Amino acid sequence: MASNKHVVPAAKEAMEKFKMETANEVGVNLKQGYNGDLTSKQAGSIGGQMVKKMIENYENNLNK
Q: Which residues of 41-56 are buried (b: 16+ CB within 10 A; e: fewer)?
């Protein structure tokens, strides 16, 4: 079962900011609160870009 709970609850605000910045980068108009009007393609592009950036960050930290 999927869960939206954060492992570190204090990270919720940072993840929300990250999501908003990423949505802006991929050109999706994301608003605070409910975003049920987004298409699957739009939501997927935000999530996919977030994962891509997290992987890049992890790989960069491995090389240091």
A: ebeebbeebbeeeeee
